[in-house]
Amino acid sequence: MSKFPKGFLWGGATAANQCEGGWQADGKGIGVPDTMTGGTVSTPRMFYKEIRPDIYYPSHESIDMYHRYLDDIKLFGEMGFKCYRLSINWTRLFPNGDELEPNPKGVAFYRSIFEALKAEGITPLVTLSHYEFPYNLCLKWNGWADRRTIDCFVRYAETCFKEYGDIVKLWLTFNEINMGLMDHIGLFSTGVMPEQEPCVAISFGGEESHAHKQTRYRALHNQFVASAKVVQLAHAMDPEFKIGCMIAGSCVYPLTCNPDDILAAQREMYKGNYYCGDVMVRGAYGAMAKRILKEEQIDLDIQPGDEEILKKGTVDFYSFSYYSSNCATGAPQEAEATGNLSVGAKNPYLKASDWGWTIDPKGLRYYCNELYNRYQKPLFIVENGLGAADVLEEDKSVHDSYRIDYMRQHMEQMAEAIEDGVELMGYTCWGCIDLVSAGTGEMKKRYGMIYVDKNNDGSGTLDRYRKDSFYWYKKVIASNGEDL
Ligand code: BGP
């Protein structure tokens, strides 16, 4: 007997900016990712204020899903997807972000996608903002730092609800909203312009003035307000709508049982997850958030009425990405660092991917329990997967047994979490079709079960091929997770 509930939403996830391409097709405006250059595991993505003709930008063509979505959706259907998580590219609907009426061609494009999904019997789960912030609003208002952006986002969300609400019932406001808290430049997540350019587009732990940091925190607060307004709007427009938060899962262990390590891990768990989770699920900043803000000397500039909006705009479910775990220590200078996204100490019990991301399936069970016991809201794993350099064989097969192992082990732990009592709505693995990596801008870091013939330098036929994991996942879905 399968441990997964009936109706469990198995599927895959993508983001418009990482797969669509067609960056200026049919009147689309420039989004933040369109300004970011490619990179590799050792060379970072760069940001220049102007888009330069001599530079290759991976999102401009991506895997050209803009022109190939019908075939791609058929492949998702063939795998038996129950659910497909995708994002709407804000700048297809509102090219500059602040227009009053949407671009009809952009509206028609997503209509056609949702109709195609419906024909395959696939439930869409839509992220309204997956880093696709209109670049015009960065230049004009410094992104989310300006409260006028809130109204633009609400107008955009309302358009989506109105245009697609007959088919789309599941929504997420911001992808990985907690990225705005990480000590990086902020452009990617909050649309706040860097202090100088050119610069590294996404940098963790880079130089940042206190004023810029404060702007980033305030921008994140404005995103919370916008999200809460959109949640209220969704509930008012259609009682069938379910709308969730999306947080980059940050599972942190103490490096040892030294109380200093325990406290460091507790703080990291809080900052990495509950700072945002408490606002979006409980409707208010938590106690530890206030201490963090005080220590960082941040004044959030909360406006009258904001607290009420946050309270009334709490989400229906909690969604998150989960790739790896981290260790925290009270003495970071003495510990060996990990290659993980967020800075942490190396866990001696775990192996890492070729990109340095620790692999920890049991951490997923632990993390689900922590979240569920804190919030008692249904959970949705909307990203998980292994970034690897796959090899396309002469006969066009791809033998990605490492990916199957990774996913199987995580699914086994999901089943355990369900046995623990966790309410899990679904699982959409990340990058079900190979796409551009958000962190490095590479094609080489592949997550898909469908191989796309495209290389880091932009060469390739863009043809699609089924990997071994394609057939394996099909079997998993058909058995509702019993046959792993
Ligand atoms: C998450 C993002 C995705 C995705 C994924 C994998 O943070 O929501 O957009 O890209 O991470 O990261 P990367 O592409 O850097 O390997």
TrEMBL record:
Please provide one cellular component term from the Gene Ontology annotations of this protein: cytosol
Instruction: Say yes or no: keyword Hydrolase present.
Output: yes
Q: Where is the active site?
A: E383
Family membership, please give it: Belongs to the glycosyl hydrolase 1 family.
Q: What is this protein called?
A: Beta-glucosidase
Give the matching InterPro entries.
Answer: GH (IPR017853), GH_1_N_CS (IPR033132), Glyco_hydro_1 (IPR001360), Glyco_hydro_1_AS (IPR018120)
Q: Which PANTHER family match?
A: 6-PHOSPHO-BETA-GLUCOSIDASE ASCB-RELATED, GLYCOSYL HYDROLASE
Does the record carry Hydrolase as a key word?
yes
GO molecular function: any one? Answer: beta-glucosidase activity
Q: Keyword set for this entry?
A: Glycosidase, Hydrolase
Gene Ontology terms: biological process: carbohydrate catabolic process
